[in-house]
Design a protein that fits this description.
Layout lengths: L2 H43 L32 E5 L4 E6 L8 E7 L10 E4 L9 E7 L3 E10 L2 E5 L12 H4 L11 E3 L1 H10 L5 E5 L9
Parallel strand pairs: 1-9, 7-8
Antiparallel strand pairs: 1-2, 2-3, 4-9, 5-6, 6-7
Amino acid sequence: MNEKSNRILSIFLVILGSILCLAIFIYATTRNVILEEIEVMALQKEGIIPEEKRENKKNPIDEISETMLATDNPMPWYLRVNIEAQVVNVYTKDNGGRYTIPYKAMLCSTGIDTPKEGVYVLPESHENPVKARWRYLQGNVWGQYVTRIVDSILFHSVPYQDKSESSLEWWEYDRLGEEASLGCIRLCVADAKWIYDNCQAGTQVEFYTSANPRTIW
């Protein structure tokens, strides 16, 4: 090779080396970011976020009640009725058996007689049915997919004028998200059915008040 060819080859090798170094740097940086995100997601799933990864955000576990952290409840679901936000949040268990993982959020309507605080347990069957596909309710209306919480406080659908799916009181449906019932927790039909199908006797229902809806839509 002549001198000019050697110079061109040297320049080419320098450029190639620079490109390889840049590619290695990008790969290493991207890999670290991805691994860090995976680690944070795993910790969040466990309900634990280290201080150095919080970015000054409040740890979601700070808003979880002591009852949710108990590990001796065999039920798969824990329901929280937020009176102020008019939302029912459903939690499931983390690997430690605590109800720290948000699973589902439901817009609801509560009322004057709805409990404002406390934890209740869905009861076993007694002379008043715990669950009913249709049930006659106060106010000369009917509800679908009824689940008793305590006494006359129920989960149920938005009311119907009669025992017919074509008689939904749409104006009450439009009020979901605000206080509208006498005391029961009204839900859309799909959400009332989900509780009816999935939440058995022994499931805990907590009533509390917070401006934070903690929705997961």
